[in-house]
Write a structure and sequence with these properties.
Layout: H1 3-16, H2 22-29, H3 34-46, H4 50-59, H5 68-101, E1 107-108, E2 130-134, H6 139-147, E3 152-156, E4 160-165, E5 183-189, H7 201-204, E6 206-210, E7 213-217, H8 220-235, H9 242-254, H10 259-271, H11 275-290, H12 296-299, H13 308-322, H14 332-339, H15 344-354, H16 372-411
Parallel strand pairs: 2-5
Antiparallel strand pairs: 1-2, 3-4, 4-5, 6-7
Helix pairs in contact: 1-3, 8-9, 8-10, 8-11, 9-11, 11-13
């Protein structure tokens, strides 16, 4: 068995560990030695599964299946990540309370607010930043408030403003689980289109007690819909973390018999354009990777209504995308093409994404009184990043060219 196939088998074993019984998982893991795990460490980290995997095999009493050095490293990472998660939660609490003191309605989004059904222990989740939801009218006041916490505006999108604090370009895999001097926060603007039914998401938000801290968070049904939308958004982009799929699958399993909850989720999804498809695609991918999970009250209006081409893409490429050797692929362009059939603007966008004609964004920023060494280091970090992006576009462009032909052949007989 060549190294590439062996690496794929190890990744499959990790994914299987979350839904197969202990004897089966043990038989899979016994195949691999220290060298295999050393090669898989990068994927475990960037997929977000490393600490979830540690907790899972510990619960099944299978720690002996892994080299002692790997277990030791994972345990160190867990200790560091617990400290970082506590710091992240503490800052989120301080910021939301400061905003509420200014009569600015806000809510924390995504991972840090996921319920225990989805994330049993927040310290097992590798979260990079804080996401806040506010109304557009409060944007300038929010910017001033964030400045008190050291944040400065770094980028502006259509509905998202990105803020940074601390020195840029200091993060790497070496300090992935550590509390970092570089911090990021995204401010999301509530859409006026969602102000229907019971009001917008902020009107439905609530205070939740998390690790002895009160945090402004979305309504549980809103959290689930947003979780599905977030996962589908990344399925339509370069990289999808396997941990996001696992968290979504666990969320479904934990609520499987809660018919009232699924009724609320359906009602909310139907109010938002594209939400039903996003949730359906996320459910199908989660079921493919970790096993059937969706009750009829969820599948009937989501998975069962998916276009045939979307289902085919998930079945052909969903697992491949999650266990790819290096993060990112251009296979998502086939999915985007399927979602933009007959649209000239869509074809133009696909060409731009396939062969970008611009330099990659800056990931470093000059500091005050920057020394020659710091300037050289910053230049080296940016150059390495540009080289990696160039390699990605060339290598994955070739993969896309090959798969595009196969996709047309396989997809040709499906009803549109």
């Amino acid at each position: 068995m060549n190294e590439e196939r062996r690496a794929a088998r190890l990744k499959e074993a990790v994914l299987a560990s979350f839904h197969e019984p202990a004897p089966s998982v043990e038989a899979r893991l016994r195949e691999f030695g220290a060298r295999d795990w050393s090669r898989a460490k990068y994927w475990l980290d960037v997929s977000g599964l490393a600490l979830y995997f540690l907790a899972r095999i510990e619960a099944m009493a299978l720690l002996a299946c892994l080299p002692r050095s790997v277990i030791s490293q994972l345990q160190t990472n867990l200790k560091e990540n617990r400290q970082r998660t506590e710091a992240l939660l503490s800052e989120a609490v301080e910021i939301t309370h400061a905003l509420r003191a200014l009569n600015i309605e806000c809510a924390v989004l995504k991972g840090i607010t996921f319920p225990s059904e989805s994330v049993p222990d927040p310290a097992l989740r590798n979260q990079m930043d804080i996401d806040l939801l506010i109304r557009k009218a409060d944007l300038r006041a929010t910017e001033k408030c964030l400045a008190r916490f050291g944040y400065a505006l770094a980028a502006v999108g259509e509905r998202t403003w990105e803020f940074k604090a601390g020195p840029c370009g200091t993060s790497s895999l070496k300090n992935l689980y550590q509390e970092r001097p570089e911090r990021a926060l995204e401010v999301h603007l509530e859409s006026q289109q969602l102000q229907v039914g019971r009001g917008d998401r902020l009107a439905r938000s609530e205070w939740r007690l998390m690790q002895s801290c009160w945090l402004a968070a979305l309504d549980p049904a809103d959290i689930f819909v947003l979780q599905g939308q977030h996962l589908f958004k990344h399925m339509c982009s370069e990289y999808t973390r396997a941990s996001w799929v696992l968290e979504f699958w666990r969320h479904i399993c934990g609520r499987r018999n809660d018919t009232g909850f699924w009724g609320q989720v359906e009602s909310l999804a139907m109010e938002q354009p594209g939400a039903a498809m996003a949730v359906g695609a996320a459910v199908l991918l989660a079921s493919l990777i970790f096993g059937q999970c969706a009750p009829a009250e969820l599948a009937g209006w989501s998975v069962d209504k998916l276009p045939a081409g979307v289902c085919l893409w998930i079945q052909l490429y969903g697992r491949r995308v999650l266990i790819s050797g290096r993060p990112g692929s251009k296979l998502y362009l086939l999915l985007r093409k399927e979602l933009n059939i007959g649209a000239d603007a869509g074809r133009t966008e696909l060409r731009r994404l396939l062969v970008p004609l611009h330099w990659p964004p800056k990931i470093t920023k000059a500091g005050l009184n920057e020394s020659r060494f710091e300037r050289t280091r910053r230049f080296w970090i940016q150059t390495r990043f540009a080289a990696r992006r160039l390699h990605f576009h060339v290598s994955q462009g070739l993969v896309f060219a090959v798969e595009s032909t196969r996709w047309q052949r396989r997809n040709g007989g499906l009803p549109q």
